[in-house]
Amino acid sequence: MLFNSSTFIVFLPVVVILYYLLNHKYRWFLLLAASYYFYMSWKASFIVLIALSTLVDYFVALKIHGSDSKRRKKELLWISLILNLGLLISFKYLDFIISNGNHVLSFLNVSTTIPYAELILPVGISFYTFQTLSYTLDVYNGKIDPERHLGKFAVFVSFFPQLVAGPIERAGKLLPQFSQKVVFNLENFKWGVTKMLYGFFKKVVIADRLSIYVNQVYSAPEDYSSTSMYVASVFFAFQVYCDFSGYSDIAIGSAKMLGVDLMENFKRPYLAKSLSDFWSRWHISLSTWFRDYVYIPLGGNRVVKWRWYYNLFATFVISGVWHGASWNFIIWGALHGGFQILENTVKQIKSGFLDFFKKLKLLRIFIVFHMVLFAWVFFVAKDLDTARTVLTKMIMFDFDFDPYKLYAFKGSLNFLLSWFCIGLLLLSYFLRIDLKMKNAYLFNLILLVLIFFLGKDGNAEFIYFQF
What we know:
With about 475 residues, the protein is mainly α. The protein is built from 20 helices and no strands. The longest helix has about 35 residues, at about 185-220. One of its GO terms (molecular function) is acyltransferase activity. Its main location: membrane. It is a multi-pass membrane protein.
């Protein structure tokens, strides 16, 4: 059940109405039933995995909290880690591991090949796995007490607005909200509707339209000019932002209509003035997860310089692996790790020029955007050969501005509409639109008109569903 489908447009109001009609003591059951139904709409058998993860982390956390033995607590934590990460690795990375193993065997002239498992990747497994792991880790570290109510914990794991693509919430913030007595609030409802419409605008008006050009150019990069490659890469940068932040906006808005607050996942990332600033604005729930559960446990920056750089690089490589089972994603993560090391090295150089450079905000935004753009090539390219072709054309710029080649798809109208949509997004960036503004009704009407007239037909999946 996609957010941008007619099924969800019917599903959500029904859940919201029933939610406020029910006594608050039983609302957890409605949310659990709705969340499981939502998840089973992709493939019913997937529910077994999420139920297993829920039960294991529920009981493991209780046992950890009740144990006085550090050794026993660590053993229990390993049970959670092995089960959750074992399932994630099996479904998401097993064939990638087998493929690389077969390459090694071939290199060694071994005729035997390992058969592929060909398991179907459960939707959202990377997201809910990290959410349940953070809960168990927080209980283990004494940051929170375990949830005693199994049903409410199950809702925390499977809450449908953020189940399949985040934001990845922390138990300390989200779990208590399922025990609060929520009264219908018109302002929260209106804010939620506006947030959702803004998300739909990003998704169906901008992301889905840009995808036409991106998909066509990246499917055969050898047929297009350097200019087309560059434009397609810029389009993808905005496509992936609007696609994912659009999903997050719809998730946050849906939850708000139910009186539940989810964290903001994006804060105008393409206005970042440094790479570290970018990662404080992009996919915030994931970047803070890696900071708290990978980077800091490795030692963070409280170690000697080489170890600090290692911690940075390792964290970003692991982040790349989290995104997908391919060398493209590993390289994408490694690039960002390398960028972080480069940035921190430059920061330590005392120079009058660097002091002056810090004042050139627009130039810094331009440079950071293009460093991110360079890395995005590996994110969107289907394989390393495609990425190499794209980067070669972009670096060896041919200055071919032939309009026919540049338009690349369905004539100039769609091409110009794509730029127009990006312009609308940037306008909303700089206007700093407040979703609680007094003229929200007018803003909603404008969004509806844009969605109706400029929205791309069809229910395209969100990019981050594949993770």
